[in-house]
Amino acid sequence: MLLSSVLLQMRIICKDVSAEVLYDVLHDTSYRKKWDTNMIDTYDIGRLTVNADVGYYSWKCPSPLKNRDFVTLRSWLPLGNDYMIINYSVKHPKHPPRKDFVRAVSLQTGYLIKANGDNSCVLYYLTQVDPKGSLPKWVVNKVSQFVAPKAMKKIYKAGLKYPEWKRKHDPHFKPWVYPEQNTLPTVNLEDLAIQRADELENIDESGVSEERTHISDDEDGLAKD
Questions:
Q1: Peptide bond into 64 cis (omega under 30)
Q2: Which Pfam families does this one have (predicted)?
Q3: Who's near 203: CB < 8 A, 6+ residues apart?
Q4: What's the confidence (pLDDT) of residue 216?
């Protein structure tokens, strides 16, 4: 059985991590390079409003699958003591698909961080992604059973270590909280368009063997600094 779209729903309780801290972890691209071992590169392209921007993200797929990348429009909203971050794929004229990656599509991805007391929270994650490849069902099963849960645990562990890391790295710089700190160039909305999956090349990876596919057992993934 081959699948062209993947839908995942996850939830994790984060003890000793406040909703505010986890919100910062998900925004801070400098810190992400320390804990997201699946990431190849990420950067902000430009801003639309005080709570919306466009960014690039690429990540390593389990070998021998081809690596994927995204260009997404992201928006965020504090909801009292809770927080929401959502994104979906867009086309940007200066960031077309690259030959060394498969351009995947986030149909809709969201994080909801709900406070659970003064120093605890619950992270909810929902994503529907078209990886632009005809993937065997066993690939999707591995992602949902192993890769995604590990990623949620990495976010939690990153949250535990973030306050100490941030104290040493521009502790007052949080443009997602203080928009006056944002120095990104402005992106014109008319330059963007929704990235539709059927406009991109579909990669046939249906013949990939489960025995040849390696998924890392790395649990922590936090680089030393």
A1: yes
A2: START
A3: 66, 102, 132, 133, 134
A4: 55
Task: Sort 80 into a burial class: Cβ within 10 Å, 0-12 / 13-18 / 19+.
Answer: exposed
Distance of CA 74 to the CA centre of its chain: 10
CB proximity list for 69: less than 8 A, separation 6 or greater: 40, 56, 57, 58, 59, 98, 101, 102, 103, 104
Rounded Cα distance, 206 and 79, in Å: 42
Greatest Cα pair distance, the chain, in angstroms, is 51
Secondary structure percentages of the chain, helix, strand, coil, to 5: 25, 40, 35
What is the distance of C-alpha 125 from the center of its chain? 10
Tokens of 198: 């059927």
C-alpha 128 chain-centroid distance: 12
- The phi, psi pair for 112, rounded to 5°, reads -125, 120
pLDDT along the chain (225 residues), means of 10: 72 97 97 93 96 96 86 97 97 94 94 95 95 75 79 96 98 96 95 93 73 52 47
pLDDT attached to residue 210:
64
Three-state SS for 136? strand
Please identify which residue in the block is written with the tokens 């790395």: 218
Cβ distance 85 to 74 under 8 Å?
yes
